[in-house]
Design brief:
Blueprint (H helix, E strand, L loop, with lengths): L2 H22 L5 H6 L6 H12 L2 H14 L4 H25 L4 H8 L3 H33 L4 H17 L2 H32 L4 H4 L11 H11 L12 H15 L3 H4 L8 H19 L2 H16 L2 E2 L6 H10 L7 H7 L4 E3 L7 E2 L14 E3 L4 H8 L4 H39 L5 H26 L5 H15 L1 H9 L5 H23 L17 H19 L5 H9 L5 E3 L8 E3 L1
């Protein structure tokens, strides 16, 4: 079979599996739909959490960013990994101890305010829709690159698949689908990395190949990569153009944003208790580490292979590619590789012959021969294109396509659950229609999930204008860091934090961060005008401190929370027990 046939086979089989799991695990109650009945095993939840966490940004975009930003791209690796540790240690067990369905549910009860709940819903929706835009963009990139389907049609197909297992199965269906998606995506990520590591360094373990010598040469792979790209006028791979302040702020924004992401937090509500939440967090870190320790090697291999196969190749235009390429080879020149021509049709790679010599020059800003760069490539394609660049078998390429889909769709499903539960549970059941039955709420939840799928697809189309998948996702982390993390953290660890402080804190963090991102991405702002040299990807960390400070000041300036709320805050930090909300003298009970 050729590469396209393998791609269709793997994608078709995995999609059928996801739909089958959704039908098998169809939600029968609101407990099933929102939190999978609180009955997911910690190891299973750890694997599902890893799939939920490792989105299209992790699978598709992170290695591409590392490939072209080098050391500067490592902020995504450090920020996302460190953030998960922060979430597991500081927030997840205590939120599970509180025993609610959603983050806005926690905010509404902890801050004894329906208005605070609504503000939290708005924050969660802003974060989730920004995040999901990046996932749907990843789906469009994968479909358009390998299946010969237009970007827009690819997003449409992804919407249909997510609709089935998110709307039918709810969190129960999503949990078991994500377990399957983890297996698919991790095989899809590591198998080609092993092959390419063997080809370049003779080492089967990519993490070792990353620092080993190139096969047959007495030079390390990283040293060779540095030499290759500096000779073309680029900075060394092991250096960066980013300022220290920006690197620190982006890393911190990703870390604290992770700890405020509703779709990750909600996964810890699916286990039995706080102890199980801690165990599942540990397993999730193990499962996540498999991909995250492989990503730097994948990025470095991709950069080296890209330059060596494309630079100075003769461009093929017009006629049958195979015939023209054969003619070019016959006269002793190297034709542009077939993978480049395939991806060129998607618009994600391009060549512009500035000097009209027919050769493709990859050049940096300090090119010693003075030539301008003629080749551009979207960072999001490199994990998908890597097997083609390395000329791996067609089945490996098909596996990678299925893995990219799994990564994007698994996170999209988790985000849809946040959106659905915010509408059905927090807005309808807890605010507008408090007498709503479980059956009616489940119907509303499914309708809301369906509406969210459509909105996600539209945002995926818009996301093509925003930048790389990881950059789009980074904006969501900044919004979460500035708006949700402060009030969750203070709500758990400072019993004096009250509703007025929480409301003002969320609004300040959300409005300030969103305004900054909008101005510098769409409003004509110039990088020279960044505050303190901090880019939109990292500004959430700066405004997080403003949000925290405002929340503390307002809380100290207004009435303290009721006594029963303060006692509740004490109780949720005691593993395994929680005081019944609103009944301060009822004692402790297990949850």
């Amino acid at each position: 079979m050729d590469q396209s046939a393998w791609s269709f086979l793997f994608v078709g089989v995995t999609f059928a599996m996801y739909i089958g799991i959704a039908i098998w695990s169809r939600a029968a109650s609101t407990d099933d739909f929102y939190v999978a009945g609180h009955d997911v095993h910690p190891v299973v939840n750890g694997m599902a959490t890893a799939a939920d966490w490792m989105s299209a940004a992790s699978f598709l975009s992170m290695a591409g960013l590392i490939a072209f930003l080098g050391y500067g791209g490592s902020v995504y690796l450090m920020g996302w990994t460190g953030g998960y540790v922060l979430l597991a240690l500081l927030l997840a067990p205590y939120l599970r101890e509180f025993g609610k369905f959603t983050v806005p549910d926690f905010v509404g009860d902890r801050y004894y305010s329906g208005f605070a709940r609504i503000v939290a819903v708005v924050c969660a929706l802003f974060v989730s829709f920004t995040y999901i835009a990046g996932q749907m963009k990843g789906v469009g990139v994968a479909f358009s690159g390998f299946l010969g389907i237009q970007y827009e049609w690819g997003i449409g197909i992804g919407m249909v698949i997510v609709f089935f297992y998110a709307v039918l199965g709810g969190m129960k269906g999503i949990t078991y689908t994500q377990v399957a998606q983890y297996v698919v995506l991790i095989f899809a990520y590591t198998v080609p990395a092993i092959f390419i590591s063997l080809i370049i360094t003779d080492h089967a373990i990519p993490q070792i190949g990353f620092v080993a010598n190139v096969a047959g040469e007495n030079v390390s792979m990283l040293a060779k990569l540095n030499t290759v790209i500096t000779d073309l006028g680029f900075l060394e791979y092991t250096s960066t153009e980013k300022s220290t302040a920006d690197i620190f702020c982006i890393t911190a924004a990703l870390m604290f944003g992770t700890a405020g992401l509703p779709h990750v937090i909600i996964r810890f509500f699916t286990v039995r208790n706080a102890a199980a939440a801690r165990v599942s967090a540990g397993w999730a870190l193990v499962f996540i580490a498999v991909l995250y320790t492989t990503a730097p090697a994948v990025g470095a291999f991709a950069r080296l292979n890209f330059v060596e196969t494309v630079n100075e190749a003769t461009y093929v235009s017009g006629g049958d590619y195979a015939e023209v390429a054969a003619d070019i080879s016959a006269r002793g020149d190297t034709p542009v590789p077939a993978w480049f021509k395939n991806w060129e049709e998607t618009g994600l790679v391009s060549f512009e012959d500035h000097n009209a010599d027919g050769r493709m020059q990859i050049r940096g800003p300090d090119a010693p021969d003075g030539l301008a760069n003629e080749v551009s490539a979207n960072n999001d394609i490199f994990v998908l294109a890597n097997p083609e660049i390395a000329q791996l078998p067609g089945w490996v390429i098909g596996l990678v396509v299925a893995g990219g889909m799994a990564a994007a769709l698994s996170t999209a499903a988790g985000l849809l659950m946040v959106i659905s539960s915010a509408v059905s549970h927090d807005i309808c059941r807890r605010t507008l229609f408090k007498s709503m039955s479980d059956k009616a709420e489940l119907t509303v939840a499914r309708v809301a999930a369906a509406g969210a799928v459509v909105a996600a697809g539209l945002l995926g189309l818009f996301a093509s204008q925003l930048g790389f998948v990881a950059q789009v996702v980074a904006f969501a982390f900044g919004l979460a860091a500035a708006s949700l993390f402060p009030i969750i953290f203070l709500g758990i660890f400072w019993k004096r934090m009250n509703r007025e402080g929480a409301i003002v804190s969320m609004l300040v963090g959300l409005i300030a961060t969103f305004s900054y991102i909008y101005y510098f991405k769409f409003g004509g702002g110039s990088p020279e005008d960044y505050w303190f040299g901090v880019s939109p990807e990292g500004i959430g960390f700066v405004f997080m401190w403003l949000s925290l400070a405002v929340g503390v000041v307002v809380s100290l300036s207004t009435k303290p929370p009721p006594v029963e709320i303060q006692e509740l805050v004490e109780d949720i930090r005691v593993p395994g027990t929680r005081r019944v909300h609103g009944q301060a003298d009822a004692g402790m009970r297990p949850i």
